[in-house]
């Protein structure tokens, strides 16, 4: 029995390598690697993990012009080497295996200027090759602030928005990323904003920092049709209203309608563009000028209409002059009665007196007509002066706008979004490693 047991044991020992090499397929090998529980980062002697980003695919999802925030989707394909995940020929002959993404360590990227980040694996599996090279892909949904874009000349705007994707660097351990030379841009136009190009830029101040520079431009068609063109047409309509007669209320009604219509477009502008900031869009100043111009034109039209009734400006005096006194009304009634009584009177002196009253009555009417004609002529002269004044102001304003838009009067300051504390530790840990070791021991 003992001899038979020894023979069986020897048979199992010599047949084990054959079983391993023949029966350990991809799934078997994957289970062996999963059993190692390698969920910590590869620990090299210098405490540095090198991750190579093989390719990046960028897509702009949306751009909020009012809040100056950009939402984007970035697909990152990366590779790194973990020797403890590899195997030799004695274990298995397979070249690569698929492992669940949550069973091994995967790098966490740092986005310094992100407002909101959502990270999802592209697939639930990663590929591990024989030498321990891990091939992994993730998708980043990123929301960043783009306050560096100058909206002063909106809608004729071109600018760059930064998306900082890096590793981490604390004390003397770091995750070092190697960015690709080119980025694939997917989906160029989102709303009125167009993604022109995406490049990897090395920061001039911090040499170990890189970021994606997204070049953006605005398609001006929508803003021109919905904002600029209506404001120009309303201003032209306001000038055309000077062709209407001052008498009556047709001109005043039209000017009030123009002011109310322009207020509606002003609300649309405030909902679409941000009103604060150092370089506020010139459209805000344009709409402010147009609104003041329209209100002044409406007020002048009301004043001119009032002057057609009385040439004096004081409303209290005008109201007193327009309302006849009781004595004047009685005299007019006596004159009218005298005019009517002339047909009934046969006395010569009374006829002469009646004729004199008629002459006086006609002279008063003639004087009133002369005063009214003089007021109308004076108002027409003022109306022409007002038209020339507003036309001159509009021409000067157009010249100023052309000059301002062609000169770079406002420049945005570049925002520094790096975490300088990491670079501080990195610098001193390299220069004075013993100091950090002693300092950590003290704590």
Structure description:
The structure is a single chain. The chain has about 450 residues and is of the alpha+beta class. The protein is about 45% helix and about 25% strand. Strands 1, 2, 3, 5, 6, 7, 10, 11 and 12 form a nine-stranded mixed beta sheet that branches. Strand 6 and strand 7 form a beta hairpin. The radius of gyration is 43 Å and the shape is rod-shaped.
List keywords for this structure.
single chain, 443 residues, alpha+beta, 4-stranded antiparallel sheet, 10 helices, 47% helix
Report the average pLDDT across residues.
78
- Quick one: overall form? rod-shaped
Q: DSSP strand (E) fraction?
A: 15-25%
Biggest β-sheet description: 9 strands, mixed
Briefly say what this structure is:
With 443 residues, the protein is α+β, with helices and mostly antiparallel strands. 47% of the residues lie in helices and 23% in strands.
